[in-house]
Amino acid sequence: MYKKEFIVRFWENVAAQNAKELESYFLSNAIINWHNTNERFSVGEYIIANCEYPGDWCGSVERIEIIDDLAISITRVWHADNSDSFHAVSFFKFQDDKILCLDEYWGDDGIAPQWRLDKKIGRPIK
């Protein structure tokens, strides 16, 4: 259960761009991979990439699954003015109650592509 609370607090600090708090979640040798953009970060680089990203952000964890030392979260992150919205699927690997490896897959939220709209397939989830 503590891992779920850990992940919720982690995402609160990601959205708040709280550099000092974010560092405390990771082992010093942790690696963070953003697969969509083929980037690997050290903890310090990840904090720069997250905390210096322009704008004010909000976040909401939608789902967490725990399997042994692996946790998976699905989180919506959006710009405070609602101009941008994203979903991140994140795979957390833990060691000594800290993040050892974080693999993230980010996607832009938006409407379906025109070709699917033209075919009138699918329907809104919410």
Describe this structure in words.
- The protein is of the alpha+beta class.
- 28% of the residues lie in helices and 44% in strands.
- It has helices at residues 2-16, 19-23, 43-51, 114-119; strands at 26-34, 39-41, 57-67, 70-79, 85-95, 98-108.
- A 6-stranded mixed sheet has the order 2-1-6-5-4-3.
- The longest helix has 15 residues, at 2-16.
- The chain starts with a helix and ends in a 7-residue tail after the last helix.
- The mean pLDDT is 95.
The largest β sheet comes out as:
6 strands, mixed
Report, as a whole number of angstroms, the end-to-end distance: 28 Å
Calculate the mean pLDDT score and round it. Answer: 95
Number of strands: 6
The number of distinct helices, counting runs of at least 4 residues, comes to 4
Our Rg estimate from Cα atoms comes to 16 Å
> Proportion of β residues?
35-45%
- Widest β-sheet, arrangement of strands: 2-1-6-5-4-3
Give the low-pLDDT segments: none
What order do the SSEs take from the amino end to the carboxyl end, as H and E? Answer: HHEEHEEEEH
Helix/strand-derived category reads alpha+beta
Helix content: 25-40%
What shape does the CA trace take? globular
